[in-house]
Amino acid sequence: MLSSSRIKLFIPLVVFALLALVFLQLEKRMISGDYDPSMLPSALIGKPLPEFNLATLDNPNTVITSINLNNKAALLNVWATWCVSCRVEHAYLNTLAEKGITIFGLNYKDDQQKANQWLTRLGNPYELNLFDVNGKLGLNMGVYGAPETYVLDANGIVRYRHVGVVDEKVWQSKILPLGLNW
Amino acid sequence: MMLRAFLVTAIFLLSLSGFTSAADSGGLANQDSANELKVFSDPDMRQRYYGLIAELRCPKCQNQNLADSDAPIATDLRNELYLLINDNYSDADILEFMASRYGEFVLYSPPVNSVTAVLWIIPAGLGLLGFAIVAFILWRNQEDDEASNV
Lengths: 182, 150
What we know:
The complex is a heterodimer of chains A (182) and B (150). The N and C termini of chain A lie far apart (69 Å). Chain A has 182 residues and is α/β, with parallel strands linked by helices. The model of chain A has no long low-confidence stretch (mean pLDDT 94). Chain A has 2 domains: 35 residues; 124 residues, Glutaredoxin (3-Layer(aba) Sandwich). Chain B has 150 residues and is mostly helical. Chain B has 3 domains: 34 residues; 76 residues, Helicase, Ruva Protein, domain 3 (Orthogonal Bundle), CATH 1.10.8; 39 residues. Chain B is elongated. About 12% of the residues of chain B have low confidence.
């Protein structure tokens, strides 16, 4: 029979097993894409976009200070030609645009000519592209990389921010459940 | 051999520090991103700048502060910080500016609130628990000693 002091020797093993279980659960959630510690929550959720004053990508002489949502929800996609994942994402954005989803672009710290060439070659899913050459609006929005996609509701309030590539899975599991009027 | 390596390193470091201080007093104002030289009119401002880049966390390279990180966003935030300091923003205003954009994540010493409470309670709680365990063991040993003395 085990004496009580012998049983105590198993305490570290039990603690280890519990910790292992916790980390295993986290690992599972990370593999399934449910949890990613590098994705920061946005400080912009529940707020409108910060003020801005930018030209469009295709015309340097325009001055845009707000985007017109026409009482529909929309995506605001932060992209650049130097961003490899943006190229991966681009085809899916084209698909969404074909389905009638409104997508605005924020061309972030990019080369204007290269960005316009990219849209000509790969297709243009964007209603409008803001040209944020020095990343000022990006900084005010809390952008820390590309691609990032902000979900705006019909009133222009940011409801969700996705860091990384938007694909069918993200659309179905994260963006559609917000129940917005697309 | 060791001594020589040491001397070479020391001379190199000295020349670097000489270079930066000469540049500071020379008032070179080159702000392109390839050249990170920050020139301050006031030594207090420089001290605040270095304090804040140590205290603010890079959103991209998550376990580095702005001083450490080479990510493009860290460069942008350092430049923004430089401008804010020169616009006479207080340290509290600057931390608020950063947190309102990048979240409380970027503050290495976050304020105590309902979200961050657990960060502050757990270490103190574990410390107390440790003390309690040690105290319990000491108390029990003392009891045993007294019991065996009888």
